[in-house]
Design a protein that fits this description.
The protein is mostly helical. It has two domains: about 30 residues, no CATH class; about 80 residues. The chain contains four helices and two strands. A two-stranded antiparallel ribbon has the order 1-2. Strand 1 and strand 2 form a beta hairpin. The chain is elongated. It starts with 10 loop residues before the first helix and ends with a helix.
Length: about 140
């Protein structure tokens, strides 16, 4: 084990109150400091695009997920109902419009439970509803 150990200790570890004594003098806010060990240290003040690094609010993330699940469910419900009406007017088999209507009903249920916060279940119901529509269209 030859070589010398680091002679400098990080100011937070050593408890040094003087930042200048720790060797960070002359750096502007947001600069990146490379220590003797070669580890890049970033103060995290700004990102490359100039925006502040902020932690997202979990409530905002959940609200966005609920809106996305409800919006996708409503959109797929309307698409399924429109396809059901179009197929009802020109299809010989009643199975195809019924499959579209059943898939639309599943998507409507997904929109409802997605708006209540059950977004994972809503995603799976949306997938199931679209699959019902797609498989119901196969006999045509």
């Amino acid at each position: 084990m030859s070589g010398r150990a680091d002679s400098e200790t990080h100011p937070e570890i050593s408890g040094a109150d003087d930042v200048e004594a720790a060797g960070t003098m002359g750096h502007a806010e947001g600069d990146v400091d490379v220590g003797q060990s070669g580890v890049v240290e970033d103060d995290g003040a700004e990102t490359e695009d100039g925006a502040d690094d902020e932690v997202e609010d979990p409530a905002e993330v959940a609200r966005r997920a609920r809106w996305t699940a409800a919006g996708a469910g409503i959109l797929l419900t309307l698409a399924g109902l429109a396809a059901s009406l179009l197929r009802l007017s020109r299809s010989a088999s009643a199975l195809v419009p019924a499959a579209y209507a059943a898939g639309a009903a599943v998507c409507a249920l997904a929109a409802f439970i997605g708006s209540r916060g059950r977004t994972r279940r809503a995603l799976w119901l949306l997938i199931a509803g679209v699959m019902v529509m797609a498989l119901g269209d196969q006999p045509d």
